[in-house]
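[recover] target loaded
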């Protein structure tokens, strides 16, 4: 099934890349920057929707994995002048190692205990920047220099190049995650999510499956952190607070848990809602302290609204609306219209009434006794 649907996924990725290219050429610099920001958060939200939606594990610390990817990229570019592709691989590797350690520690935790453990990670890890100020730069952070290739010309907008690079990494991540979700590993995740005991009886290693989900989610967040470093040109602990982790989880829920296209809708929410709400607050003369808290309230209001209207998230709601207009898909229509199995008995078989009793699982009727039989 994975190899059969791979051309379709690649086609969708290529079509999306063409659309982004057209938009980046036609829109101004600020919109290009917003496209880059949206593409930055897509891998992180997609990894979280795999972790929570498919394997059933809650994480409030994916912002910490983004910090690992961002600081890795910043340090390698600043001190060793590595190519960006190499820093991307290194960021993913370090994030995978951290995700494996957290996954092993959290393999026996469930529900609120798992959420609390990952919450502690999200709060504690960014504070290392203050403990090792000479390496991580404390509050000031680390400056990241990222330029467009020379063959594009000196006047080529940097924001457009950032949008292209971020979109390419996001699309590759989505294609790889889609193939993984529909492979045997993805089926194991669903089995563990639905019933761990049944999955273990079926031969699934529950602990390894849960750890692998954490590693995949951490790698996705690490890639997002690496992209965030080159887009914002600054890596500081203030960008990786617990608010970021909560925003990622909110985006995954609103977009649709377990749905990779839902990661796009959630990323749009993360980028566009704060900008729009801040503009509205400024236009109404609200102070900066009040305006900074409005995006959090907006997230909550949108979350409640989406859960009431579309319990399965925005992507689930769109699919449901599409089915209302187009009817059920081919698989549903085929199963519904399939002819019923032939159950009419032949002449040599039992009578129709007795056959019906046997079909329901009842005992066959006893033959009537002859008169005069003792």
């Amino acid at each position: 099934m994975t190899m059969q649907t791979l051309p379709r996924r690649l086609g969708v990725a290529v079509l999306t890349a063409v659309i982004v290219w057209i938009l980046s050429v036609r829109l101004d610099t600020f919109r290009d920057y917003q496209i880059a920001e949206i593409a930055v958060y897509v891998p992180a939200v997609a990894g979280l929707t795999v972790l929570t939606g498919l394997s059933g594990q809650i994480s409030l610390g994916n912002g910490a994995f983004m910090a690992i990817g961002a600081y890795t990229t910043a340090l390698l570019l600043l001190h060793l002048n590595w190519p960006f592709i190499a820093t991307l691989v290194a960021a993913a590797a370090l994030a995978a190692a951290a995700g494996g350690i957290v996954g092993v520690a959290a393999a026996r935790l469930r529900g609120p205990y798992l959420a609390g453990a990952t919450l502690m990670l999200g709060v504690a890890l960014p504070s290392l920047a203050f403990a090792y100020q000479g390496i991580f730069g404390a509050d000031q952070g680390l400056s990241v220099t990222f330029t467009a290739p020379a063959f594009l010309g000196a006047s080529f907008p940097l924001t457009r190049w950032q949008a292209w690079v971020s979109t390419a990494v996001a699309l590759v991540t989505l294609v790889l995650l889609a193939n993984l979700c529909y492979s045997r590993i993805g089926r194991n995740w669903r089995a563990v999510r639905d019933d761990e005991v049944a999955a273990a009886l079926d031969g699934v290693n529950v602990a390894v499956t849960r750890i692998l989900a954490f590693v995949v989610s951490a790698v996705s967040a690490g890639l997002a952190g690496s992209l965030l470093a080159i887009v914002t040109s600054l890596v500081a602990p203030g960008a990786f607070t617990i608010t970021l982790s909560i925003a990622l989880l909110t985006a995954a829920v609103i977009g649709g848990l377990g749905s990779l296209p839902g990661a796009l809708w959630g990323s749009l929410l993360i980028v566009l809602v704060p900008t729009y709400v801040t503009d509205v607050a400024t236009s109404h003369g609200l102070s900066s302290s009040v305006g900074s808290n409005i995006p959090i309230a907006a997230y909550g209001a949108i979350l409640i609204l989406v859960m009431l209207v579309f319990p399965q998230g925005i992507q689930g709601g769109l699919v449901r609306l599409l089915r209302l207009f187009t009817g059920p898909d081919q698989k549903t229509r085929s199963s519904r219209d399939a002819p019923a199995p032939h159950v009419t008995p032949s002449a040599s078989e039992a009578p129709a009434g007795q056959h019906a009793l046997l079909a329901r699982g009842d005992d066959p009727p006893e033959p009537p006794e002859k008169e005069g039989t003792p």
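[recover] notes: The chain has a mean pLDDT of 84.
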